[in-house]
Amino acid sequence: PIDKEMAKLVYEICDSKKLIGITLMSDSVDPNVITASPEVLLQEVKNQLLLNPKNAVQMAINLTKMNKIHWGSAVEIFRQSQHINELTAYCMDCLPDSAEASTWQTLVLETNLKMNPTLAETIFQTKKFSHFNKTRLGPLCEQKGLYHRALENFTDLKDIKRVLVNNSAHI
Q1: Which of 18, 19, 116, 125 keeps 20 to 30 A from 43, CA to CA?
Q2: Among the listed residues 128, 33, 118, the one whose alpha carbon sits nearest the alpha carbon of residue 90
Q3: pLDDT at 18
Q4: Distance CA 1, CA 20 (A)
Q5: Are 66 and 29 in contact (CB under 8 A)?
Q6: How far apart are CA 169 and CA 171, in angstroms?
Q7: Which bin fits 33, alpha (ψ -120 to 50), beta or left (φ > 0)?
């Protein structure tokens, strides 16, 4: 068995950045202990994403909740690496429902509508996001057979009429 406390001590004596990862993966993290810069912490999230994506999500969530990193930086890491499931998990936990996050809300919903419409529907059901681009998502909802969601997102009467006339049996 690995002695985590001994490993921490060795890394601390060597002033190793590996200590950050060990500290962040422990069950209880004291935010005052983490003194690394946001850049170093984000790099650790990137490193962890390569090794263990699930741990990277949890690490990013912990760091965001401790106000050690900004949610936008973490979202960008998951997006750039094309880890869609991890991006979605992180956003569901940390993305604020604000106008500032509207682009990211749209991205998460759009990506999931394209790749996993069932998950997108689940996200809609949570009502966690309300600042997404409805004009952009309405047609995708219609294409994926989520007619009720398409009707909620369309604002143009022509679109609403089309959905109702062509899909009334499914609504």
Answers
A1: 116
A2: 128
A3: 57
A4: 21
A5: yes
A6: 6
A7: alpha
Nearest to 62, CA basis, from 97, 96, 93, 85: 93
pLDDT in tens, 44-74: 999 999 999 999 999 999 999 999 999 999 9
The per-residue pLDDT for 71 is 96
Helix (H), strand (E), coil (C) string for the chain: CCCHHHHHHHHHHCCCCHHHHHHHHCCCCCCCCCCCCHHHHHHHHHHHHHHCHHHHHHHHHHHHHCCCCCHHHHHHHHHHCCCHHHHHHHHHHHCCCCHHHHHHHHHHHHHHHHHCHHHHHHHHHHCCCCCCCHHHHHHHHHHCCCHHHHHHHCCCHHHHHHHHHHHHHHC
User: The tokens of 149 are what?
Assistant: 């969601």
More confident residue, 75 or 3: 75
Residue 30: burial class (beta carbons within 10 Å; 0-12, 13-18, 19+) = exposed
The mean per-residue pLDDT over the stretch 127-142 comes to 95
Per-residue pLDDT, averaged over 20-29, amounts to 54
- Tell me how far CA of residue 125 lies from CA of 108, 109, 122, 148, in angstroms: 14, 12, 5, 12
**Residue 121 scores a pLDDT above 70:** yes
Written as six digits, the tokens of 139 are 């047609």
